[in-house]
Inverse folding.
């Protein structure tokens, strides 16, 4: 279980059973922006405000800094090993099969659960948009949210998850084209929000800046870290990228830098124009986001505060005198958030595809649709799981669960790049992480710190999830691994890639 698959074998496998390369730098950067900007800023702004108040500005900076040093580590490995699989593939090559399996299993939390969270966020905006139409359409509360948010079954979240899954089965070239258009819609909507909200900022809304102290700011950073999840999904597209040695590092860092700037501007505009103080309980303590208690407390407000809204940015615009633009922003979120679901499900299916190609999962999962040339079996399995989680869980809980898997994967990648610098110092590195012995340890420390500030439910779930994964590994993957059988390569049969022609 400590066996490794050499980098040379990984590259040979990818060349002989490969996906078609058709994504350029612009497409790759747009995929990164499309994957990053989404529920984190459109929805989780309210979650962060409940934990940190206006101090969530610092939370965005902390989460962005941890993401940046992790991105530098990702960029070096992605340029060296331009194949699908992301952190799973890098771990297999450096730290061994057992660690690789745990990383691949944790990435299910990152991608699949994140897709569920975004589906719930999309549902919130659509429900709000329909309710504010000239002829309002009221979605029954029982079908508008899961049990924790006062409903029974989130029907709209299920619908969008399954619709995006169907799109991915049809083909990712079409998916990438639609993504590029909707990323533009999303950026225009956020630009309009900043333009209208910044001029009416009031300094009073920033006081008290940190009502729950430093611990609240770091706790918000641990949750808002979800807002940056998605840049690493760019690395899962390595095997479908033209000139990956150049385009992957640029695409990773460009998408992250653009998104960080946008986040800070949007957060400042929301806080300054409307306020972002947390809702307190009868005992004077802040109520936990996503809990039954805060749902009940919010129901008692006539003028709903930011932390209670499931469509935070649209709610701010309506409250400061721009109801039509608020509705248009809700429409833009409804159109654009599916791009994030697309990237998350896309990333998850490519992780499963590579694990199946390595024999750790049944090879049926890497089968290709005869007409659409996409990994349709694993795509539908992922989509159904995403829809099920979205039907019943609130967005904040899903985001925290997703973060636990993400932080583990990022920490492992940061360790792997250090190990590889020691064990294979002469291997060609198209992109070398600067100050690696500073940035990689900072990435590990940052990931561990943010994990320590996640809610206890997410902290407990992660080791339980890992134990379940170990059971699966020793029941199937340990014995069926291609490396264990001495098969470090695959037959000379190229599989047409999932990019439709």
């Amino acid at each position: 279980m400590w066996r490794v698959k050499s980098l040379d074998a990984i590259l040979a496998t990818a060349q002989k059973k490969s996906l078609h390369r058709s994504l350029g730098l612009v497409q790759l950067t747009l995929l990164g922006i499309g994957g990053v900007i989404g529920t984190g800023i459109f929805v989780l702004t309210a979650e962060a405000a409940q934990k940190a108040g206006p101090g969530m500005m610092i939370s965005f900076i902390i989460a962005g800094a941890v993401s940046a040093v992790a991105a530098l580590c990702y960029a070096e490995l992605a340029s060296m090993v331009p194949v699908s699989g992301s952190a799973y593939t890098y771990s297999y090559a450096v730290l061994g099969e057992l660690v690789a399996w745990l990383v691949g299993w944790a990435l299910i939390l990152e991608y699949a659960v994140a897709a569920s969270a975004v589906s719930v966020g999309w549902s919130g905006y659509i429900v709000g948009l329909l309710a504010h139409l000239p002829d309002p359409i009221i979605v029954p509360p029982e079908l508008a949210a899961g049990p924790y948010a006062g409903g029974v079954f989130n029907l709209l979240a299920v619908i969008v998850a399954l619709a995006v899954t169907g799109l991915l089965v049809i083909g990712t070239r079409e998916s990438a084209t639609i993504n590029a258009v909707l990323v533009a819609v999303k950026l225009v909507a956020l630009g309009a929000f900043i333009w209208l909200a910044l001029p009416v900022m009031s300094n009073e809304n920033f006081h008290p800046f940190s009502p729950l102290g430093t611990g609240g700011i770091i706790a918000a950073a641990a949750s808002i870290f979800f807002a940056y999840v998605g840049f690493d999904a760019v690395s899962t597209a390595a095997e479908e990228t033209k000139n990956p040695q150049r385009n992957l590092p640029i695409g990773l860092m460009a998408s992250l830098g653009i998104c960080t700037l946008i986040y800070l501007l949007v957060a400042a505009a929301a806080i300054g124009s409307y306020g972002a103080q947390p809702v307190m309980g009868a005992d004077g303590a802040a109520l936990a986001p996503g809990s039954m208690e805060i749902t009940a407390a919010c129901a008692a407000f006539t003028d709903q505060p930011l932390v209670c809204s499931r469509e935070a940015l649209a709610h701010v615009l309506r409250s400061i005198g721009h109801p039509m633009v608020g509705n248009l922003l809700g429409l833009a979120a409804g159109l654009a958030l599916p791009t994030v679901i697309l990237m998350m499900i896309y990333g998850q299916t490519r992780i499963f595809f590579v694990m199946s190609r390595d024999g750790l999962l049944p090879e049926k999962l890497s089968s290709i649709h005869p007409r659409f040339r996409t990994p349709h079996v694993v795509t539908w399995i992922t989509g159904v799981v995403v829809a099920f989680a979205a039907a019943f869980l609130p967005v904040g809980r899903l985001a925290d669960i997703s973060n636990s898997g993400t932080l583990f994967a990022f920490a492992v990648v940061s360790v792997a790049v250090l190990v590889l610098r020691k064990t294979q110092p002469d291997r060609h590195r198209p992109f070398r992480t600067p100050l690696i012995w500073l940035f990689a340890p900072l990435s590990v420390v940052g990931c561990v710190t943010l994990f320590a500030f996640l809610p206890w439910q997410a902290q407990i779930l992660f080791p339980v999830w890992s134990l379940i994964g170990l059971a699966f590994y020793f029941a199937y993957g340990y014995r069926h691994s291609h490396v264990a059988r001495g098969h470090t390569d695959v037959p000379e049969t190229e599989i047409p890639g999932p990019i439709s022609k």
